[in-house]
Amino acid sequence: MAILERISEILGSSLEIEDLFGQVMALLTSELGVSRAALVLKDEFIGRLRIVAAMGLSDEEKERGQYEVGEGVTGQVVQTGRARIVADIANEPDFLNRTGMGGGKGSGQMSFICVPIKIADRPVGAISASKPFVDDATLATDARLLRIITGNIAQAQHVHQLVKREKDQWLEETQRLRENLRTKYRFENIIGTSPAMMDVLATVGQVSASRATVLLLGETGTGKELIAKAIHYNSPRRDKPFVRVNCGALSETLLESELFGHVKGSFTGAVRDKVGRFEAADGGTIFLDEIGTLDPQLQVKLLRVLQEREFERVGDHRTIKCDVRVIAATNLDLAEEVRKQNFREDLYYRLNVVTIYLPPLRGRREDIPQLIDHFLDKYNAENTGTLHKISREMMNTLLRYPWPGNVRELENAIERAVVLSNSDEFTEDLLPIQIRMFAQQGRDKQQAETIESLARRLSEQAVEEYAMREGEVWELVVGEVEKQLITRALERNGGVKTRSADFLGINRNTLNKKVKEMEIVADD
Questions:
Q1: Does residue 450 register a pLDDT over 70?
Q2: Does 189-359 match 466-524 in CATH topology?
Q3: What is the pLDDT of residues 400-447, one digit of tens each?
Q4: Regarding the domain with residue range 189-359, which homologous superfamily does it belong to in the CATH classification?
Q5: Among candidates 147, 91, 151, which has minimal Cα distance to 119?
Q6: Cα dist. 489→245, 452, 510, 520, 521 in Å?
């Protein structure tokens, strides 16, 4: 019972099956006199049994310990799933003694116990042990104890396999996600062929290979995080973490803990140690969004990280070294914030190693059609939509709209249109209200501009046509315009002069006088 209790403690101390086996057999050596032992598992790759852990065997002897299933005592145990107890291995023809577990000359009578390892009632290997023979009763007791131990080790092996399988799946999934991210954030996948965006991508391509701190400037929604990810996933740090922190979303205390971590008891609510984002991003990149909102005290600590590459957790005195590339972003004018003494000048220059300005969408309108196609493909796929027909008038509206929310606003507008659409035609009613209002204002303005242009052409034509009739031009042109206006107004109002006068905004007597003078047909 004491041995089993100690073995239970050993089996609960680790998931490494070879380490567990070594500790267990070391205990059996001291307590039961086991001289040699081996853990044999079936290697699915080569289809044979081989020793994966042993006690009392050299590396050369372990290498010789390979068996076909059914070969020798060990192979038979794995094949049948039944234990074998050999009192004297010298008289057992099935005992092959490839590893020297039977001992040498002068070692006396050696017994051998081999017990199968079963997972879900399927033999997957065996544990064998040899020791000097004492008597049959002792051998039977040792065999019973080894069966119990082997059952426990089988459970540990099963857990080990499950953990290894999950770890392999996790590693495979992580690698797949990394490959997807690298593909997604390749420069050629960033949409934009305007000169402004080509300048941005050229700078990103140059700076990615370095570890220089980068400051991204631009309005909200211009894609600063997208560019930060492109820098990271095209850099030598691509296999390390990319950690994002929104500096404007947390209070000073919470942000300090988020950035640098804290130790248990450092403040109310700190019930356990916490790893900060800088520590989590070690070897990789940290993206500090809305850096312009950073509190002055945190600006000092961030400056130290940038200069010394070290920090302390909140409430701790130990210094932690870190190798982190910093990419910061803001929609504020940091130079102006420095002038107003809202932002430290020394930190500004530390961040401003390489500055990339992301242009607003209204500054790269030639990219809008490509972005619309991209977002239509994306949200049609997500929502099984078919929206893709855009009229020239609709495209002109989208090109003229100022997009104060930049690419983010455009993306949201396209997603809304796809979700609300019932056909493949992109109609104006699918757009957000602010864009529809802009389109209507544009039409009103265009109509006003049309009247203005017509009046201009009429004036030019009249001046040219009546050039020889000086002194009569005003009366001829204005009189004809008045006649046409009164005629159209009467037609619109069914020939009723009272309503027509109100429509035109003139006195009824004036209208009557004009009708008589110009001989216009109208109702009384």
A1: no
A2: no
A3: 999 999 999 999 999 999 999 999 999 999 999 999 999 888 777 666
A4: P-loop containing nucleotide triphosphate hydrolases (3.40.50.300)
A5: 151
A6: 65, 20, 14, 12, 12
Helix (H) or strand (E) holding 486, with range, is helix 473-492
Overall pTM > 0.85:
no
Residue type, 250: L
Closest CA to 36 of 61, 4, 10: 61
User: Cα–Cα distance between 268 and 395 in angstroms, integer?
Assistant: 56
CB 75 within 8 A of CB 49: yes
- For residues 228 and 327, is the Cβ–Cβ distance under 8 A? yes
CB-CB contact of 314 with 266 (8 Å): yes
What are the structural domain ranges in the chain? Answer: 2-164, 189-359, 366-439, 466-524
Question: What digits encode the pLDDT tens for the residues 295-334?
Answer: 998 999 999 999 999 999 998 889 999 999 999 999 999 9
Asked if 381 contacts 202 with a C-beta cutoff of 8 angstroms, the reply is no
CA angle (418 as vertex; 414, 420 as ends), nearest 5:
115
How far apart (Å, rounded) are the C-alpha atoms in residues 432 and 139? 85
Distance CA 501, CA 486 (A): 8
Kindly give, in sequence order, each residue whose CB lies less than 8 Å from that of residue 155, ignoring residues fewer than 6 positions away. Answer: 11
Spatial distance between the Cα atoms of 292 and 272, rounded to a whole number of angstroms = 30
Cβ-Cβ contacts under 8 Å for 268 (sequence gap 6 or more): none
Provide the token pair at 515: 């009708």
Q: Answer whether residue 177 shows pLDDT above 70.
A: no
Q: Where are the alpha helices (DSSP H) in 324-465?
A: 334-339, 345-351, 368-383, 392-400, 406-420, 433-465
- Please compute, for residue 374, the number of CA atoms within 13 A of its CA located in the half-sphere on the CB side: 14
Residue 185 corresponds to which tokens in the numbers above?
Answer: 């954030």
pLDDT tier for residue 356 given thresholds of 50, 70 and 90: very high
455 vs 278, more confident: 278
The Cα–Cα gap between 223 and 204 comes to: 13
Written out in words, the top-level CATH class of the domain with range 2-164 is alpha beta
Q: Does domain 466-524 have CATH number 3.40.630.30?
A: no
Sign of CA dihedral 268, 272, 277, 278: positive
Residue 150 CA to residue 24 CA, distance in Å, equals 10
* Residue 102 pLDDT grade (very low, low, confident, very high; cuts 50, 70, 90): low
Fold of 366-439: Helicase, Ruva Protein; domain 3 (1.10.8)
Cα(37)–Cα(18) distance, integer angstroms: 12
